[in-house]
Amino acid sequence: MYHRHLLVAAIALAVASCSGPEDASTAPAASAIPAELSAAQHHGAYRQPHGPLPVAELQRARRATARYHDIRNAVADGYVDINVAIPNMGRHFLKASLLDAKFEAERPELLVYSPHENGRMELVAVEYAVPLDLSVAAPDGFRGAADQWFADHRFGLWTLHAWTWKDNPDGVFSPTNTRVP
User: Fold this and answer.
1) pLDDT tops 70 at residue 53
2) What are the contacts of 10-15 at 24+ separation with CB within 8 A?
3) Looking at the chain, which terminus has fewer C-beta neighbours within 10 angstroms, N or C?
4) What are the angstrom distances between the C-alpha of 58 and each of 8, 14, 67, 89?
5) Beta-carbon neighbour count of residue 31 at 10 Å?
6) SS3 state at 77
7) Looking at the whole model, is its pTM more than 0.85?
8) Does the pLDDT at position 152 exceed 60?
């Protein structure tokens, strides 16, 4: 399917547009993904890679996304709640204009938030995404061999989580984090 990523982004944006930006911080945790689809089924088995972490690049990603602790800044900059909330992963906000074949540590396509009972959304991770139809193989990401991209056929994207804001006992690049409900 030609430019499937644009179709996926358009559908996600259409679903997200059902609630205005003012609702983003209190959006329900309901997911567009069937309840029976766990994070493991969504991303497959994860094996912690060996090698040193790309500390300098991760620090650049943190600096570039620090302003998004306030979710209103993310929404103002074009990140949209795409109604994808996966257990041990969080709620995903996409900036569709960043979907391309490039990896840029300072410009993640998605921000991942963990909703709290009081309605506050905590920024916990960034996620990088490259449309499958723009990259036959896993994209070149962070320096070294520590990151592990996943071919997410459900959304037509290569994806890579980086837990830059919430410590993850399974590793900074694990797709899931047991410390996130």
Assistant:
1) yes
2) 12/80, 12/82, 12/83, 12/84, 12/94, 12/96, 13/80, 13/82, 13/94, 13/96, 15/82, 15/83
3) N
4) 28, 32, 15, 19
5) 16
6) coil
7) no
8) yes
